[in-house]
Write a structure and sequence with these properties.
Distance between the termini: 17 Å
Largest sheet: none
Number of helices: 8
Strand content: under 5%
Number of domains: 1
Length: 154
């Protein structure tokens, strides 16, 4: 497989997981509105899918830039490998999307740090003594910003 095909395949994979996550998010919202516990419990798989989409999207952008990323799953490590201008663009777009949706500012670096290893943590949430707070709004805004730069499913 040629390098440009890898980046496009990764971008498509990111889009697919984001799409699936958004479907689950609609069920979560319905669960909250109608107090349906089973729907509300979908927040964990929803967050796992969205965070995985972020990871694959960041890896797609790194492939496009011909930047090696190793075997990490940590979002902040992958984000830091991006070119400075790309990081700034994603940071600004995420903050803008978050502000539009929630009418408040977000601390991008703090929230990225909080979700950085959440893909691993949430997959095994049943082993944890306490469930870590899931910052869905930031995850969705960050994912949407990444997909803005990877493009739509092709």
């Amino acid at each position: 497989m040629r390098e440009w095909e890898k980046w496009e395949k990764a971008a498509n994979t990111s889009n697919i997981f984001s799409y699936a996550s958004n479907i689950l998010l609609d069920y979560v919202k319905q669960g909250i509105e109608n107090n349906i516990e089973e729907n509300k419990s979908l927040i964990i798989p929803q967050a796992v899918l969205h965070i995985f989409s972020c990871e694959i999207g960041l890896k797609a952008l790194l492939l496009k830039e011909d930047i090696s990323y190793g075997k990490t799953h940590k979002l902040n490590d992958l984000f830091e490998l991006l070119p400075e201008q790309m990081k700034e663009n994603i940071r600004n777009l995420t903050k803008e999307k978050f502000k539009i949706e929630f009418h408040m500012d977000c601390n991008f670096d703090d929230q990225l740090s909080q979700i950085s290893n959440m893909f691993i943590e949430l997959r095994y949430h049943f082993e944890a003594e306490a469930l870590k707070e899931i910052i869905v709004g930031f995850i969705v805004a960050f994912n949407s910003s990444i997909l803005h730069f990877t493009g739509s499913y092709k």
